[in-house]
């Protein structure tokens, strides 16, 4: 029976995330943006609330609340501070990918540490300096040793890389065979031979750290291999499908923050003897932002619902990620415009929101990659444009 | 959160889809060229129970819900947007207000034959000088004994030339403004009612619309729909629902353009490969499909709210403005993908392009929808 309402459990998770974000995250979001301080305490607090494993089984320390609840929680955290939400997103993604593709001993070893906050954060080491949208072009290798594997190479843009207790690392185990020669490994943060470089100076998401990694003869045991040999590419794509729902939700959170801040501002600010909100030009811009965010929200909930139902959701996740990140980009631009000169200063939050939103069209698959995925799915199916 | 259709909804969708593909689509292009009202298709839709989908069976309808209605609207409009609007007007603008505001005797006399498809309805609110500003009505009704005498001109009345029954809005008390408006149920064969020639339109040419001239038309008070002075409420409440129907029509048009463009892109070759292999075309198709899906979800959301009896004014406006603008963007890109073939009548996309435009205008322009949405947003 068609229904867009939330269950009591979903509401509870959303409200919990909302209250925490309002109380603990929002007051210091601007400060973290300015200082670049990594949100250590905040991540530990998220772990206590079950938000580092929202869609992870309870015996592994998760909340087992499903993909929709995860999307809702992500939105609330991002609405207050997108930097915190991205560390949360990657940690959830790492925990989920281990639950799905790992052995039971692997899940028992690593997942409770992620969900409890002991690992602080999980990190996803796929991109390389010369392999971004084209991950199959990676140059990092993993070679057999008598007791396991030796990893050599460089990774780029690794979110939380200087704080993460656990990495999923992709490397070529058979460099001759392209995508099918890639395998995934679970590598602890303190493993010798793994080092990280200087934090990137980014436009936004300054409370989140992004670093390059080096693997110099980094040795891991046999048990570090995640999924089968040569299964790495498949694992990465599956993880990213879910990750895209997370980024779409993050975008929605930032978009909502921009809309709410602007709604307040245009009611207070007076020009020509009346509030800005009394002008049709202002009303129309707000109406478009609200409508597009609502469309984005429904696309995101649909993808999460399909994931939760065990239905294919690659196309839907890409649509949600593409549309939500683009709509939020427009929402933040409108927010700055409607704040006028004040929108360009750090006195109001929309300047940060615009910078934080910009990366959502880039990471976990650029908008261009999403369009390629959607077109491929469209043209290879007989489904057409209907349901 | 559940996007699964019920068995009943899926059956309506399948029925409408099969009918649309097998009986409507083959005629759509010719109907458009001839500006011909598809009487035979309306009769078939009556047989299929599509003319009063959300009307309870006791009043002649199919007894289904608004989700079923939008599913049917999308499928019929996918094949022919003109046939879609005929369906939408009868369901949303005629049956719906009769169901909501009509007395039992009125439902028995007027709603039953309309919902069963034995008669066809139209909705007369707009006037030459009262479009978006519906409260500026100049059609006057004044009391005369136990009845009313009505004089004025109505504009853009979809189904007007072929309708049996009209939901008519008039001004009974000009000084009271929007609270001076009263609605009536007008039999189109009443003395003093005359239709002008069908409008010559850019699109939806198989849907006939016209001016209606009312010259001292006498109606018994039993034809009054709702309270004296309650007409504006009837009109606004009706249009909220109508917007969901038009949004669904727009989704159907957009889907037609998308699917035709996908089919063409797979077959048409340039530079040694199907144009679907070019990124420039793939990116267009990806954006089109994403927007069509988003529009459909907005429509479904508004329909579920209406079914639950919840408020849905803002959601209907969002669905309407978004879906109608998507239909226009998607149809425009479809013409571009077809190239020269998109500009000629031998292919269907020039029709989609022309048909899409009206969805941004009727039942509240995009500008009116934005006023509604902003009004709700700023009230919060």
Structural account:
The complex is a heterodimer of chains A (387) and B (380). Chain A has 387 residues and is α+β, with helices and mostly antiparallel strands. Chain A has 10 helices and 10 strands. Chain A has helices at 8-35, 40-48, 66-80, 82-101, 104-116, 232-268, 280-308, 314-339, 350-358, 367-380, and strands spanning 122-125, 141-145, 148-159, 166-172, 182-188, 194-196, 210-221, 225-226, 270-271, 274-275. In chain A, the strands form 3 sheets. A 4-stranded mixed β-sheet of chain A has the order 1-4-5-8. A 4-stranded antiparallel β-sheet of chain A has the order 2-3-7-6, with helices on one face. Chain B is an alpha+beta fold and 380 residues long. Chain B folds into 3 domains: 7-120, Acyl-CoA dehydrogenase/oxidase, N-terminal domain (Butyryl-Coa Dehydrogenase, subunit A, domain 1); 122-229, Butyryl-CoA Dehydrogenase, subunit A, domain 2 (Beta Barrel); 233-379, Butyryl-CoA Dehydrogenase, subunit A, domain 3 (Up-down Bundle), CATH 1.20.140.10. In chain B, 53% of the residues lie in helices and 15% in strands. In chain B, the strands form 3 sheets. Chain B has a 4-stranded mixed β-sheet. A 4-stranded antiparallel β-sheet of chain B has the order 2-3-7-6, with helices on one face. Chain B has a two-stranded antiparallel sheet with strand order 9-10. The interface between A and B is large, with 49 and 54 residues.
